[in-house]
Amino acid sequence: SSLVSSVKLPKEEGMLPPKKLKFSYAELSKATGEFSTSNMIGQGSFGFVYRGILGEGGLLVAVKVLNLTRKGAFKSFVAECEALRNIRHRNLIKIITICSSIDSHGVDFKALVYEYMQNGSLEEWLHHSNDQHDVCDLSLIQRLHIAIDIAYAIEYLHHHCQPPIIHGDLKPSNVLLDHDMVAHVGDFGLAKFLYTCQVDDVETPSSSIGIKGTVGYVAPEYGMGSEASMAGDVYSFGILLLEMFIRKRPTDSMFNDGLTIHEFAMKALPQRVMEIVDPLLLLEIRTNNSKNGCGDGRGGIEECLVALITIGVLCSMESPIDRTLEMRDVVAKLCAAREAFLSVYDLM
Hints:
single chain; alpha+beta; Phosphorylase Kinase, domain 1; Transferase(Phosphotransferase), domain 1; 2 domains; 11 helices; 9 strands; 37% helix
């Protein structure tokens, strides 16, 4: 495709030399051990992600191989190429190169090569199984840092890109953590450009859009045919924020008969927030209070958690008209919550 071949990747220091920004199928196959299942680190709607070691320098990468037999996979590949071609932000996954070729059987092969994120996905950290010994529980301040990282990434896409970009599939498995636990938002396979005529019209019906996104995180209006919008990303962020501090997936079995994670959180505001947050956070607060011999920190921390749950609830209102916060407002409120938290009790 001429669109794919025209993708120009931003120059980035510390990456591969500019003259070696293209890799063949054979090189990617070798880097991933012939796309070995032992190197598979993730899978999505349109393909699989493998850990790989590229070139003589031994650069660690993540190789996303599209399953082109899946309907929409090629469209997803083009959307991701287009979205990533000109954007650069510390909290977005960096793309190193793309590969549009044929495999060893002569079949079309499409892959995207990203920087490798050593600490995996937020999904793994929030909902790890007992056999994941290398994954620990996230502290309150770590969760807050990560939430702010994600908010900064989406705020950049919405308010600092021309035209603005809608991510369209924000969820914990699409948030990756680097060596320093800095969050990077990835997977732009459902990304959409927002042109001027759409900015203020969040409910324009479109018979072609369908429900795209992930159940539990996708904005309700998308199910009624609405176009992708900033308000849709705000909704997904709100659900993600609630999940991070309650540590329940929006699809958890406890959310049934009309009770959603949004309703659950809203009913707890403000007095009962400490009853619904992740018990591990309460344990952390008690442990630190007793260790430091201070019993007065709980009030300030409770205030911080109330602020965070309130932001999550405001972002995930059912109607887009009621979602009055934009991502720049969300960033400001989260940063204020972090400042207040650190001034009361420094857990860093």
